[in-house]
Amino acid sequence: MIAAIVVFSVLAAGVGYALGKLASRLPADASSLADQINQLLPQTQCGQCQYPGCRPYAEAIATAQAPINQCPPGGEQTIHALADLLGREVIALDTELGECKPAQLAVIREDECIGCTLCIHACPVDAILGASRMMHTVIASECTGCELCLPPCPVDCIDLQADTVNIQRA
Amino acid sequence: MKPQHLTNRFQGGLVVSDPTATKVLPVIATGLPTTVVLPLQTSHNSYTPNVDSGQAVLKGQRLDHLTPSGASPLLAPTSGVIKSIARYACSQSPGGAVNSIIIDVDGEDNWHPDAQLFHDWHQLSRDSQLTALQASALIGHGGGGFALYRKLTSATKPIKTLIVNAVECEPMINCDAALLQTAANDIIAGAFALASLCGADNTVIAIENGKQQILQSLVESLTDNTSNNMTLCVVPDIYPVGAERQLVEVVCGVKVVAPDIPSRHGILCCNAATLAAFHSFVSTGYPSLRRLVTVAGSAIQKPANFDALIGTPIKDLVDIAGMHSPMTAEHSLTVGGSICGTGFYDFNAPVLANTNCILVDKPDKNPVTEVACIRCARCSDVCPAELLPQQMHRHIQAGKPEDAQAFGLDACIECGCCDQVCPSNIPLTASFRDSRATLRQRHQIEIAANESARRYDMRQQRLEQKTLEKNRRLMERKRALQKQTASTEQSSPQRPDADAIKAAMMRSRQRKKNRPGNDSTG
Q1: Is B455 near chain A, with CB under 8 Å?
Q2: A23, A70, B303, B357 - which has most CB atoms within 10 Å?
Q3: What residues contact B225, with CB distance under 8 A and at least 6 apart?
Q4: Is the ipTM above a cut-off of 0.85?
Q5: Domains in chain B and their CATH numbers?
Q6: Tell me: the pLDDT tens digits for B18-73?
Q7: Residue B402 contacts A, CB cutoff 8 Å
Q8: Cβ atoms within 10 Å of B293's Cβ, excluding its own
């Protein structure tokens, strides 16, 4: 009887100690949570969430620094998916940041382009091709329609069109 | 040869009455249309065009860029000038329109110099035969629309049995029956050629019970081409016995459950019309660019099978067949048979390689109304794929098609049996088809998002590396500069007047310090 109590007490203490050590050695996996959140974001990389891309926003959500309603391109669908994953309540999209629009594509009016490369530096997914003082063009299949190339263009030669080339992004 | 009557059955299915089963519609040859339309996105193929509007193309010319191996090319069905590449009606797209190449036909029908892929099929090695087959863009004429090349190369086991699917079990479709009656020899020759290509030991021609007239002509043709390893099987007339997995189960007794495919069990199942097209390709070296299409329905004056060029607008065929009254928006258009055919909206949609039947029906006077599911489970009794349509329907109604997927949505063969028996008139097949399209689209969006994320991460990495590189170079230069100054200080000899300069500087500092009012006025 006493032997059993001693054996189990020692076992319990040992296992508890080991688990405690492990827990402190391997902290709660914020990076993998951020990965999961990142998977649910639309990857437009538009920065409308006030973070410089989808991954930084995912990391901010994972560390509870940002609410889940800051992604306009994802819209309601993304909010629902995030709420499901994180067990949080569904909240309405923060429309001050933008609205959920149908998929769009940036198109450069090529004869007006002066080749300043500013849009190339602005594109978060390297979807604009060109060189200094050469015409630039958007690789339609890679464009996410994030609109980040519009403000830097000094001659306003970039238009947004409804995305008919790619499969319709939600 | 004596036909073999099979009595095997498969789970589910329906006995449907087909008023047209015994009648074979006449075959009418059609000339060249004035326009042909080639969709760039069909159910199993998507193409990137390598041509532009205004460009002249020749018959058999390749119109798309080379894609990863296994994909089937897009060939011009006749010569002409490309009018435009734009969104155009398509019967296979749920949205009704896809990007298409529209060709103004010049009427010359000139072959492209490279269109003939070989002179003698039998002199080619097996590998070059397969390459030629891929280049010929032969897409199955059955219904699935798979390229024959892909079907052959997807086999993981050597093919033992080739089944010639001459079962046309769905009411109204008549093109295979007409082909069997007029060109049975071509089908048999195609079957022999394909059997030797895939190495099949025995070939089974399967035909449905009740088509005596066609059976007769087949038996006669087979007696001319006597061969020990070709058998003729008559399968029971239960819809959908003509579906690939069901036919394999009846003929070979092998149950193939989706997503498994028969070719992984050493069985290749090919539509009879595909084999006739294969024969025409093998005997001439030119790709086969025509097919038979049934045009029928209650609004059609003279139903017939049209020998049409792939890409012909459906409207052209319907115009030849004639309609009782002018076309209105109320007429229902269906591509495929009367049970599993899908509705489409635009008359201008083209005939594709797997368009077997076009039905134009008069406006429905007593449209049925859909009511709630009463969970009678009749749909699951008749489902040949052994699914639970009522459960899938429930999840789809709840807006969760991914849950329906867990109930085997992907295994649905869209045969339409459940619609036929549903007492609540629920369009189950249509909702399954739509949900699958939604899921497919979601999957594609996911792929695109992953690609964007990858490009974003790569860019981030590149920028980081650039900054690191810049910092490293700055540090290096700083260190080099420091080294240089240190070494110049060390190596350069002292100026001879260095002490004098030092003394002068000291004096000047002293003077500044002693100057009165330095602090206040300074």
Answers
A1: yes
A2: B357
A3: B185, B188, B189, B192
A4: no
A5: 4-16+23-56+72-110+129-305 (3.40.50.11540), 369-488 (1.10.1060)
A6: 766 678 889 999 989 999 999 988 877 788 889 989 999 999 999 988 766 667 89
A7: no
A8: 26
